[in-house]
Amino acid sequence: MAQAVEEWYKQMPIITRSYLTAAIVTTVGCSLEIISPYNLYLNPNLVVRQYEFWRLITNFLYFRKMDLDFLFHMFFLARYCKLLEENSFRGRTADFFYMLLFGATVLTVIVLVGGMIPYVSESFAKIFFLSNSLTFMMVYVWSKQNPFIHMSFLGLFTFTAAYLPWVLLGFSILVGTSAWVDLLGMIAGHAYYFLEDVYPRMTGRRPLRTPLFIKSLFADETVVVTRPENVRFAPPPAQEDHQD
């Protein structure tokens, strides 16, 4: 069992494995009181006045206490982050990293601006961690890119992947959790989907082109196309040996 988990972990793509590891280590560290959540949450005043810039990152790593909700979000993080990185962004690690950076930036700006708007500022003031919203953004982007996949929710009913974010939003409301967290993820996900997929088809321009300095952080990857199982292929043609 342990060996199977180790193999599964090693086979994860780099961004998914790094994010999942950081999230688990941070959340477990807080549960064991090794790390204090008060040093991680998003606090604009401390970021601007005390230069605690790490809060812009750490608020995406803490998934609250170790409970069923934590396992639920770790499953979605491991599943949909991995699916995106291995399929839609296969061989494009820099683009996938840029998607997460864009989503994190949009979420942070929404919370900061929302905190200054009357009538809704109280709701935004209660949002200290955006980890769940970023995970929900990945679910939304995946559902938009794979809208016709058939899914089942708890074995109760089936639907296509296009409705997955709405099903999860409804479930969150039923169990009494804040809908704002999921809605923020949907807003960030739709912003990315529109600017990356819809707007370029409409205008021929791609505003979310990954900057070169981000591309330079990741080595070019070779995309390996695997053959489906249980499918017979004709043997490759014989090749003649050539001497230089």
In short:
By secondary structure, the protein is mainly α. The protein contains eleven helices and two strands; from the N terminus they run H-H-H-H-H-H-H-H-E-E-H-H-H.
The CATH homologous superfamily is termed Rhomboid-like
Shape: globular
Helical content, roughly?
55-70%
| CATH-defined architecture | Up-down Bundle
Determine the CATH topology: Rhomboid-like fold
Please state the CA-atom Rg, rounded to the nearest Å.
21 Å
Number of helices: 11
**CATH class category name:** Mainly Alpha
Order of helices and strands: HHHHHHHHEEHHH
Stretches where pLDDT falls below 50 for ≥5 residues? 222-244
| Number of separate domains | 1
Keywords: Endoplasmic reticulum, Membrane, Transmembrane, Transmembrane helix
Family: Belongs to the derlin family.
Membrane topology: Multi-pass membrane protein
Protein name: Derlin
Report on the structure:
Pfam families: DER1 (PF04511). InterPro entries: DER1, Rhomboid-like_sf. This is Derlin. With 244 residues, the chain is mainly α. It has a single domain (2-215), classed as Up-down Bundle (Rhomboid-like fold), CATH 1.20.1540. It is built from 11 helices and 2 strands. Helix 2 packs antiparallel against helix 5, helix 6 packs across helix 10 and helix 8 (131-145) crosses helix 10 (179-203). It is globular and about 45 Å long.
Q: How do the strands and helices of this protein lay out in sequence?
A:
Layout: H1 2-10, H2 14-31, H3 44-49, H4 55-58, H5 68-88, H6 93-114, H7 121-125, H8 131-145, E1 150-153, E2 157-160, H9 164-174, H10 179-203, H11 212-215
GO biological process, one term: endoplasmic reticulum unfolded protein response
InterPro entries: DER1, Rhomboid-like_sf
Subcellular location: Endoplasmic reticulum membrane
